[in-house]
């Protein structure tokens, strides 16, 4: 099978590429390395024989991609990171809009199955728990998080339009926090950041009192879910994918200290105004496909820590 993964050099993309290559698929990844690093994946590219096309999706589809025919296209390209919400705000919006349109046109031409990596951020600061896929969310279109939140919402709207108007076989996955091996060294999301500091015996920073609760899914479970959703045929176009096991950020920091055998202390700082209190996925749709997470947080953190120790990469 011929697979294309946009944003394939990033954390989720490279793990997805490895899992396909392991099963004998031919995998191309398209990335401009805006939130990932080429150095970090060089060995992986060779080991798994992945075809890298270095390009910015917003500038069009390179000839090298057009010359191939893909059965499945996974569209993951999007700058990520709360710390990038202002610095890469324009790139977030433009990639979600123009980048998504460019890759949708390719999927339409090639009649490829298509999957968009959307985000739980489409729910904004939710007023309903858990969030079902039918919940339309609570997002401020001018808020500080809007380049990412509204970018993903617009990308979802584009995919939906291509399905309705052009008969595209497209799926949307709203990903909730995911973690695991191959996260980038500069990834400032909570788990990689806590791991980085804890393993270096530096103080861990926890915002507020650390009582805000979050859920975390291990990457292998996410990938199993993404593939099931891409191949599903039950007429449902949009799926939440995440974990229902929530944990406070303080408890998470304490677990990480324990599992890394760290000498670090925990320091408390102010919480940013735009930080959401909590989110919780309603997972009935993906459970109905037969999906179940199989790696609990302790096991997933242990696997991630071992991977970092063996590869000196986050
Ligand atoms: N990791 C999570 O917990 C999580 C949660 C919700 C949604 N998602 C979504 O899943 C996808 C993958 O996330 P990730 O965690 O691997 O993030 P990541 O930042 O590691 O990967 C995103 C990749 O997209 C690439 N990219 C960005 N703009 C591009 C462009 N214009 N052209 C080509 N490449 C471009 C980046 O360089 C990067 O390699 C993203 O769309 C993200 O929004 C991830």
UniProtKB/TrEMBL annotation:
The keyword Repeat does not apply. Its main location: Golgi. It comes from the Bacteria. It is a single-pass type II membrane protein. Gene3D superfamilies: NAD(P)-binding Rossmann-like Domain. It comes from Candidatus Gottesmanbacteria bacterium RIFCSPHIGHO2_01_FULL_40_15. GO terms for cellular component: cytoplasm. PANTHER family: UDP-GLUCURONIC ACID DECARBOXYLASE 1 (PTHR43078:SF6), UDP-GLUCURONIC ACID DECARBOXYLASE-RELATED (PTHR43078). Its cofactor is NAD(+). The lineage of its organism: Bacteria, Candidatus Gottesmaniibacteriota. GO terms for biological process: D-xylose metabolic process; UDP-D-xylose biosynthetic process. This is NAD-dependent epimerase/dehydratase domain-containing protein. It is found in: Golgi apparatus membrane; Golgi apparatus, Golgi stack membrane. Pfam families: Epimerase (PF01370).
């Amino acid at each position: 099978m011929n697979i294309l993964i946009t944003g394939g050099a990033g954390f989720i993309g490279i793990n997805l590429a490895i899992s396909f290559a392991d099963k004998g698929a031919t995998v191309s990844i398209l990335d401009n390395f805006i939130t990932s690093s080429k150095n970090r994946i060089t060995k992986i590219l060779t080991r798994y024989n992945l075809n890298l096309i270095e390009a910015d999706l917003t500038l069009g589809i390179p000839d090298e991609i057009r010359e191939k025919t893909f059965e499945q296209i996974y569209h993951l390209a999007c700058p990520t990171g709360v710390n990038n919400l202002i610095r890469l705000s324009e790139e977030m919006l433009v990639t979600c809009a123009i980048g998504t349109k460019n890759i949708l046109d390719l999927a339409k031409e090639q009649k490829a199955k298509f999957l968009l990596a959307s985000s739980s951020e489409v729910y904004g600061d939710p007023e309903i728990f858990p969030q079902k896929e039918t919940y339309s969310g609570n997002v401020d279109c001018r808020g500080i998080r809007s380049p990412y939140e509204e970018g993903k919402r617009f990308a979802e709207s584009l995919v939906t339009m291509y399905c309705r108007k052009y008969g595209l076989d497209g799926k949307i996955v709203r990903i909730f926090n995911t973690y695991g091996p191959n996260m980038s060294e500069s990834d400032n999301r909570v788990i990689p950041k806590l791991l980085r500091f804890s393993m270096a015996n530096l103080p861990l920073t926890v915002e507020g009192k650390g009582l805000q609760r979050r859920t975390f899914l291990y990457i292998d479970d996410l990938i199993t879910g993404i593939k099931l959703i891409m191949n599903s045929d039950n007429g449902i176009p949009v799926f939440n994918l995440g974990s229902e096991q929530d944990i406070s950020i303080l408890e998470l920091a304490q677990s990480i200290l324990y599992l890394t055998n760290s000498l670090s202390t925990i320091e408390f700082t102010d919480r940013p105004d735009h930080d959401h209190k909590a989110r919780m996925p309603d997972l009935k749709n993906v459970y109905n496909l037969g999906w179940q997470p199989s790696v609990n947080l302790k096991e997933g953190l242990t696997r991630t820590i071992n991977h970092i120790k063996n590869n000196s990469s986050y």
